[in-house]
Predict the structure.
Amino acid sequence: MQVRQLLEKKDKGYIVATCRNPSGATGLLELKNKFPERLDIHPLDLTVESTIEDSVKSIRDKYGSVNLLINASGVLSIPNVLQPETTLTKVQRSSLLLAYDINAVGPILVIKHMWPLLKAGGGSGTDKDFAIVANLSARVGSIGDNALGGWHSYRASKTALNQLTKNVSVEFARKKDPIICILLHPGTVDTDLSQPFQRNVPKEKLFTKEFSVQKLLSIMNNTKRCDNGKFFAWDGQEIPW
C-alpha cells in the first residue's frame, strides 16, 4: 500500500520495493504492470545480509541514490514457530532471537548498507533538502507506555529498533549528513500481522491499510530537521520512549 500511494501521488520518480519472494508478491506485480518504468522489485531477506547487499548494489548501479528509505518489515507471530507470550513462562530463546533478528537487526543493516546512497533530492520520495529514513515501529515498543506487559519478544525487539534508530540519528547528525531518521507507529492495522489478535480491538481503532499509510506518508511529508530521532504515532503525536 505504501508503494501504491507513493507511485500514485506523483507522476515522476522511481520506487524500489523489496520482499523475500518477488514472484509471489501479487500486489507488487500488479503495480509493476501498471507502472513498468517506475517500479522495480528486488528480492531481499532481512535475515540474510547478502541479499541486502545485492539489492543495494542494484539500486546504486541503476539509480545512484535514494532520498526516502522506509523499513516496513516486522514479525509478530508465525504458526508453530512464534507466538506473542502472554506470560514469562512461555518465553523461549528462539522466539526472542527471531523477533530481534527481523524487527531490529534487519532494518538497521538495511540502513547501514543504504547509507552511502541516502541523498537529498526530488522524486517520488521527498523533495526536501535532506533524505528521510522511516522505520516502522510499534507503540508496544515504548517502555514508558507499557502498562500491560506481555508480548516479550515483540515488545523488546521493537524497543531495540527504537534505540538502534535513535543511535543512527545521532550519528548522522554528528557527521552532518543531511539524513533524518524517524520511527513510526501505524496504529492497529487490518493486516495479516494483526489478524489473529483483532478480537478485542474496537472497530474504530482498527485501521485500513489505506488510512494508515496515508497518515504515515503525511508525517513523512511534513518531517522537519528537528524531528530527527523522534518516535511518532499515526496521528502525529510523539510517543514516549
